[in-house]
Amino acid sequence: LALHRGKERSPGEYRLYRPSTVHLPAHEMIALERDLHRALNEDGLRLMLQPIVTADSQPNARVTLAGVEALVRIEHPERGVLSPDTFIPVAEASGLILPLGAWVMEQGLAWLADATRQGLDTQTIAFNVSAREIHAGGLVERLADGLERHDLAAQRIILEVTENVMLERDSVVRETFDALRALGCKLAIDDFGTGFSSLSYLQHLPFDIVKIDRCFVGEVHTAPRQAALVAAMIEMGHALGLSVTVEGIELHEQASRCLASGADHLQGYYFCRPLPAAEALARFITL
Ligand code: C2E
Ligand code: CA
Ligand code: CA
Ligand code: CA
Fold it and tell me: What is the pTM of this model?
């Protein structure tokens, strides 16, 4: 097993990122970073899980749970629940994404092991991985270690990366992907169609799954052009041997349209909102 060794990069070496924090005033970034520190140290992170489902395109077909996606929140003592859209960019810029990602992965693996012991028939768990985590190294080793401790098969793990990870033609990305594949994990392209990358990475990077972003889905049941675009993306995914998930399904009609166009998996509020990990098991058993 050729695991990627993370410590090869010299300590002074930096990579270019484009964290989307530039629009935040400095004092807000500092406050968020402080919140993040506190959440990490004082049990302030919450793991949420959202189901990813399958169904055939018959009307009223039974929906089955294919897997879950892990989504993190901060529970702030005064400000309530903070959304990852606010603090993930700060976590990436500050490097706190590394302990945060490690926390999410550990909690997610523990949940999956527990759910499996309790008889929940869920196949997979998907983790969001940011570019910074890949470039920092150690991701593959950490995952392999977690899988072993929780006695889970790597085939049940999906790692989701956005197209922006592919912006840099960097061998670290390729090596990490290869090592994850060698371990047995699956790789997903997240938010497909929204990044800055060209499609050229599809020729040589070993993806298994493409997740069509929810911005393509809002009017898929009423706007023929949007429907055509989604159908074409699904077809392209299949032509490349990928499984296709459509995100952001909020309505029955959106679900039927995407299924009729061949989507393999669906995810969205229509089926279930992200739930706290502690509640998820009971709910998913009856899904
Ligand atoms: P994402 O990976 O694209 O995750 C899907 C987002 O869409 C989640 O937002 C989910 O709650 C939301 N969503 C699901 N179904 C629907 C729907 O039907 N309608 C609408 N409008 N939204 C829906 P969330 O949980 O706020 O997460 C936002 C983003 O933060 C994620 O987008 C992901 O990029 C990032 N993120 C979340 N957790 C982690 C994490 O542990 N690590 C990293 N690196 N990023 C994370
Ligand atoms: Ca995701
Ligand atoms: Ca997404
Ligand atoms: Ca997103």
Answer: 0.92
What whole-number distance in Å separates Cα of residue 41 and Cα of residue 20? 25
Q: Quote the pLDDT of residue 22.
A: 53
Is the pLDDT reported for residue 52 higher than 50? yes
Å from CA of 276 to ligand 1 middle? 14
Instruction: Inform me whether the pLDDT recorded for 282 exceeds 80.
Output: yes
For the segment 60-66, the average pLDDT, to the nearest whole number, is: 85
274: CA distance to ligand 1 center in Å? Answer: 9
- Provide ipTM, 2 decimals: 0.98
Residue 252: count of CB within 10 angstroms of its CB: 12
Shortest-distance Cα residue to atom 7 of ligand 1:
248
Q: 215 CA distance to ligand 4 centroid (A)?
A: 10
Helix (H, G, I), strand (E, B) or coil at 39: helix
Selection from 283, 248, 265 nearest residue 111 by Cα: 283
**What is the C-alpha end-to-end distance of the chain, expressed in Å?**
38
Top pLDDT among 45 and 282 is at 45
161/144 Cα distance (integer angstroms): 18
Contacts 24+ apart (CB under 8 A), 95-99: 95/132, 95/136, 96/33, 96/36, 96/37, 96/40, 97/130, 97/132, 97/133, 98/132, 98/133, 98/136, 99/40
Q: Whose CA is nearest to atom 33 of ligand 1?
A: 128
Amino acid at position 265, single letter: H
| Nearest-atom index, ligand 1, CA of 72 | 38
